[in-house]
Amino acid sequence: LATVDSVALVVDPYVSLRDQPGDTGITVAHARRGEIFVVQGKKILLSGKVSSIWVHLEKGWIPESAVRLYQNIEKASLAAKSLE
User: Fold this and answer.
1) Over the stretch 47-58, which tens digit does the pLDDT of each residue have?
2) pTM for this structure?
3) Separation between Cα atoms, residue 36 and residue 76, nearest integer Å
4) Which of 9, 29, 5 is nearest to 83 (CA)?
5) Among 34, 32, 13, CA closest to 81
């Protein structure tokens, strides 16, 4: 999926980044609330009638529900301050 939102702000307290999108991926890194990453891409996974969106960051894949997406670093940094 193409995305205009090129920066991700982690909003979950602690989340695993995986080597591939989905729950079967192996944890390759971790991220904490307030960290900002550049978005590499997105992928929609379908499992029966349930779909989930995964976001590809520099260090791995993360569920979209764990991040908020922004157009640039400045906007993400400003939003990160409100998480403190």
Assistant:
1) 889 899 999 999
2) 0.88
3) 7
4) 9
5) 34
